[in-house]
Amino acid sequence: MRSIFVIVIASLMFLMNCKGKAQENVSEVSPERPFVWEGANLYFLLTDRFNNGDASNDVNFNRTKETGILRGFEGGDLKGITQKIKEGYFTDLGINAIWMTPVVEQIHDGTDEGTGFSYGFHGYWTSDWTNIDPNFGTKEDLKELVATAHENGIRILLDAVINHTGPVTEIDTVWPEEWVRTSPKCEFQNYETTVTCTLVANLPDIRTESNDAVDLPPQLVKKWKDEGRFDQEVAELDEFFERTGHPRAPRFYIMKWLSDYISEYGIDGYRVDTVKHTEEYVWQEFKKECDYQFAQWKANNPEKVLDDNEFYLVGEVYNYGISNGQMFDIGDRKVNYFEDSFHSLINFELKYDANNGYEEVFTKYSDLLQNEMKNHGTLNYLSSHDDGNPFDPSREKPFETANRLLLTPGTSQVYYGDEVARPLLIEGTQGDATLRSTMNWTDIESNEQTKAILEHWQKLGRFRAKHPAVGAGLHKRMSKAPYVFSRSYSSNDFEDVVVIGIDLPKGNKSIDVSDVFLDGDIVHDAYSSQDVEVIDGKLNFSSEYEISLFGKN
């Protein structure tokens, strides 16, 4: 009996190891399969709304006032994200990059935005760029998260805010006048009324245009002294300004504080907030500092370097669409935010394009990315945290949403819960709170339809992660009916070709792949999990599904 028991245990360990290897292979990059940001599968989550890994940090700074619906802290934290990485949730979904909302310390009180009393659960109301908000966790938690993600082949993007501080409250006093302006409110008619103004009332605007030296805000001085780290912070600032030669102007303080997260934690990129509301040269300056710190981190941690990619910067230029190409019209001038600054901009256009036919959308995006936007990228989404007009607000088309997002050329942004049809219409909410409900984990466990939706997203996501051609490759239609297309990608000695069919007949299928694969090639359908040999230029196979995802292993 003992020998049988040993054999069973050994077999189980072998199977578990194989499962782990299979998961690793989806996200990890080998010399044969490079990681390219242009084709990445990125997961965007609100840190507070994703998963509560440590209930002991749910209340801090006496944030106990009654808030509007979904406008208070809900408990999500860094440990919760790390937990899901360890469980393989992201790997199973084919995610190879995670962007989370800002984790820096928020204002301690809250404010009524006209949509109900709100705390800074979303992370965009900064009070101290140098510290992690305790509601999200600790610096040690962030270190573990980044390290765990990297061990699983997943890159980490934090969210950078240079444009503004948090609102002013009875507790959170306004920063000095030489640091911020509190008026006028932006009117968005031209460059000046978009940049040199406050986004909304009571959101002090950093004087990013100023080159005048300023002292530290007195509230930060007091805070750092109370925390026993004033001398250390000042010494680091002195070293930064001596090295860079920058004036001690407001924007350079913040650039120093944000770039510290690169050198300390080894993050792989930043999503940058409110880009068009700040002078474009600010982002060129920010890129230089990010690049410097990323190079320093790589030199100091050679054993932890994932690849030779540059630090990734993706900007939020609100209402930018890929049809704008590299130029964005602010009203009285056009600005190129890609020049010496951003690799990609968030694309606000796909939610409209997604109403068109697959071929029209895929061809449009492929042509733009292979030509006018070559060497740059776009981050596509169909739902997000502050866009009140998502593609499918009532979640009636979760399968189609996956097809349109994950198969469109460019980088894909899966908004947390897209993959499980997390509700976007929450009764009683006001404004963008309806887009920010807590992750519906219980539905995954108990609802069969939710499980089916997740499985579909997982299959497409893993295929995308395994094949850079899906997001970064050249698109070519092979058949109109049934709809079949190919994507091809090459870089240095690496080549990747995939063939994808949508709305195929159930049961027996025949696809002409003579322009793509050779007779005798064995290609794998990742959707039905079967290998098929190319015979006489065709793939003849049978499956119960209306979609196929073919690629060479």
Low-confidence stretches: 1-27
Q: What spatial order of strands do you see in the largest sheet?
A: 1-2-7-10-11-14-15-16
Helical fraction: 25-40%
Number of strands: 24
- The portion of residues forming beta strands comes to 15-25%
CATH superfamily of the largest domain: Glycosidases
What is the general shape? Answer: globular
Quote the distance from N terminus to C terminus. Answer: 41 Å
CATH class of the largest domain: Alpha Beta
Secondary structure class reads: alpha/beta
Kindly identify the CATH topology of the largest domain: TIM Barrel
Q: Could you give a short account of the major beta sheet?
A: 8 strands, parallel, barrel
* Total of DSSP H or I helical runs spanning 4+ residues: 16
In the residues, how many domains can be counted? 2
| Cα-atom radius of gyration | 24 Å
Key structural traits:
single chain, 553 residues, alpha/beta, TIM Barrel, Immunoglobulin-like, six-stranded antiparallel β-sheet, globular
Describe this structure in words.
This protein is an alpha/beta fold and 553 residues long. The protein has two domains: 31-167 and 255-472, Alpha-Beta Barrel (TIM Barrel), CATH 3.20.20; 477-551, Immunoglobulin-like, CATH 2.60.40. The chain is built from 16 helices and 24 strands. The strands form seven sheets. The chain has an eight-stranded parallel beta barrel with strand order 1-2-7-10-11-14-15-16. A six-stranded antiparallel sheet has the order 17-18-19-24-21-22. Strands 3-6 form a two-stranded antiparallel sheet. Strand 17 and strand 18 (483-491) form a beta hairpin. The longest helix is centred in the first third of the chain and has 26 residues, at 2-27.
